[in-house]
Design goal:
279 residues, alpha+beta, elongated, 14% strand
Length: 279
Amino acid sequence: MSHNITLITEPTVLPIAEMTLIPEGLNSMMDWVADYRPECLPEKTLFDKDKRAMALFPHYGTENERSLTGNELLVELAGRSCYHSYGAKAGRKSNAEYIDRMLFPQAGTLPHGSVAYHAKMSFFIAGVSRRLSHELIRHYVGSDRNEEGSPSQESTRYTEHPGFFVVHPYLNSKETRENFFVSMTRAYLEYQDFLTTEISHYKHLHGIDPSGKSRKRIYEAAAGYLPMQAATSFVWTSNPAALTKLFKERTDEAADAEFQRLAGKWQAVCRERWPNLFR
């Protein structure tokens, strides 16, 4: 066991998964539209093999020389299916323009926000404290239809904490950070001393290292020695509507300072990857 600790000052936010469209399904959907609303589609001569699945969209899946993401296309398609505004019948030709009208309407008009829930995106989040994760879970855990997302968080029952601790933005002076380092080191020593003592005691009694339930009981008890600023990680799956709400609330200056730091980086990642879904 090591007694060295590491301080973290920046969170990690990595997009790891998103929705994709199924070409075969789009082809079959287009056949349905051709039979039900033939006036919505361009002439069949335009349906070359490579573009046939994208014929429901007036832009054929690209915008400003960028291939649109599955999430952006899915939100647009959900809206177009409500009004049969496909292909040739589309009033707004670009994905950005269409989503902008649906999700961010002008004053005096109503949004069509339900389409935003079809898109899903998953992230790997790390370099945040257990205290922050408590804030996130306390306010937002549950259905990603009306809350903020679905988490799978790092366990403290099955793994030994590696000694990473998150520096809160308030600790911005050399003195406060040095004091924080000393405090976290002391706490981590107590955490590891507890593990060493209990594992040794178990081995003395039973002649073998603890495993299964016995090991979990030791590690879950040891987790109580970890401060709230101990680092954690999780996979978080959500949707544009829920994330937009999170960003609006948690980038506000009244929000928790560490949460502001995470939300700002998270928002930047979303805007870069799905620019049409996040303003």
